[in-house]
Design a protein that fits this description.
Strand order of the largest sheet: 2-1-4-5-6-7
Radius of gyration: 83 Å
Distance between the termini: 30 Å
Strand content: 5-15%
Shape: rod-shaped
Bound molecules: adenosine-5'-triphosphate
Amino acid sequence: MQLKSLELFGFKSFAKKTSLDFASSITAIVGPNGSGKSNVAEAFRFVLGEQSMKSMRGRRGEDLIWNGSKAVPRAGRAGVKIIFDNKNKLFNIDFDEVSIERVVHRDGINEYSVNGSQVRLRDIFELLAKANIGASGHHIISQGEADRILSANARERREMIEDALGLKIYHYKRDESIKKLGKTRENISHVESLRKEITPHLRFLEKQVEKIEKAKTMREDLKERYLDYLKRESLYLAHAKKELGAARKEPEHELSRIGKELEHAKKILASSRESDGRGKEIISLEEELSGVRSRKEKLTRELGQIEGELRAEERRIKAAKAAGEEGATVPLKDVRAVYEEAKEYFKKAAAEQDLSAIKKLISSVQDLLSSFLARRPGSATLDESVLQELQAKHTEIDAELGSVRKSESTLTARYHALESELEAAQTKGRDAERKVFELMNEETVLRGTLSGLLQQEALLLREEEDFKREVAEGAILIGRELMEYAHTNVDEAQVLQEERKAQEERRRGLEKLKIRLEEFGGGSSEEVLKEHREVKERDEFLAKEILDLNQSAESLEQLIDELDVELKRQFEAGMKKINEEFERFFRVMFGGGSASLSVVVERRRKRASSDSELEMLQGVPAEEEEEAEPEEGIEISVNLPHKRIKGLEMLSGGERALTSIALIFAMSQVNPPPFLILDETDAALDEANSRRYGDMIENLSKKSQLILITHNRETMSRAGILYGVTMGSDGVSKLLSVKFEEAVAVAK
Ligand code: ATP
């Protein structure tokens, strides 16, 4: 026995705790109308998780709770507990006994527990589905519901059959998977929209990072160029400094030499200027000499005169001696001739410069006059005193002239000596002067050269300062590593060979690069990089999540497909078996004929508007019915023996009951549930059919425990245990074990 017992407390009319044991494979519950028998069947539904109030004849949970009577106060809750034997693992849990309990409170709250531990409703469903106890309740046939399976539509019928086949578990899984899939898709779109939200920011940050990276490359480039430039510049400066230092040496040396020479030359020049004293001496000598000369001329003239007078006197004396006569006459023409001739001599003398020539001319005149006189007849007396006087005077003058001449020659010698001395001194001074000029010219040229060099040095100094500034600036921009420029590899010979223009070109390049870099820069790159990293990580995380979600959606879809396939396979196999059993039970029930189930595809139609009456009143045609998904349903076709009845709706009440019983039994045979409850399913049967029914029940009870609520004597006779339900004036259902005869009595 798998079903052990059922306990009710406060459930509907069972105000007090009531327990039913199911020790037999067939248990019958009997009792008068309204005593509460159906409440027992509903207690089964309730405890197995039924959610439809309608199928428990209530509107709300509260309706299931003992509502009280004059004698017994109402209960706060209704509870039902069902206990199964689990030794042969009917349920997939590790207990020998499984108790399932459900309690509903007046506020409508339901509690479920398995073996005393609270669980969720779906846990109950899963647990039951595995034990072939479906929630659709095909194993609980309520009163008047015997032909429920016949009156149900094709789709509901399919559900019942699936439930009977134990396929509900696949449906749960499928529904769950679909739900999960929906949730997953929702998540996907949520995550996608999250990702979409950050995309523009990420793009922006990516651009920033790109900029930063470009700036980094530019800075690298700048650094390389800087190192190269600085190395070149330092080489150039060092070289230029050395060269300038060397270039200065020679002119400086020359300049010091020229300085010395100039000093020397100036000294010479100064000393040559001192010879001015000699000039003065020459002048005074010249004056002295000219004095001596005019004295000499005067003396010479006087001497000449004296000599003339002397000769004239001598001639007179001589003539006086010779003629003895004084006053001899001389023809005029002779005197005039002498005069003319003398005049000629004087004229010549006056024109003559040379003294000796003049003297000669004078002496010629003397001779002329002496000869003229000699031709004249002799003079009277001879007076010799004048002559002597003249002769003394001549001697005196002649002596003075001699001394004058001597001093003249002395002075002349001195003059000439001075003159040549002066000339020599002047020559020397002029040379010195020329030398000074030359040296000064040279000095000017050298100073020019030197000042050029100094200018170059000043320029170099400025370049050195520029260089230092460039290094400092570069260090700010690039960092300490810029100081490595000293170790940069550069072809030194090439550096010293190339034109300065090339280096300037490099410097301009550097400046341009710096400006570009500055344009790029701005903002803390570290922050941007960090933010980019974070946003990127977030984006990648979201992308990964989308991937994961898509993967799980895919595997859910796959699972759903697999479930569909499995469902279809099992359904088809189950349907085949049910059909066989249905046919068999049907033939037993009707003593022939045939019956079968077939799968039909229905297009479920649903109305968009339900207010068709209003539409009709208003003359508006009903809205087009929408076509929905095609659905598989189950159709039943019957073929009664000796009757031409095919449609279910043409069956009599009894025939319907027999058909539905045959179908219910067929269903339960394929996948036998642990128990089957039939609430007055036999109500419409006549005696003969009741017997057939009883036979089948006994047959069924080999596979499932049966709980039969019945008024049927035949049915009661088949039961191992009989419970009688009674209700007194307190409205409380009471349960008691009864004997067959008692049961027959109670049932009436
Ligand atoms: P029949 O043989 O005519 O089918 P039955 O034995 O199956 O009758 P039930 O339909 O099970 O009888 O019982 C109905 C009884 O239970 C009614 O008397 C009804 O008043 C009582 N009942 C139903 N719900 C409650 C409730 N919540 N509190 C008290 N009594 C209730």
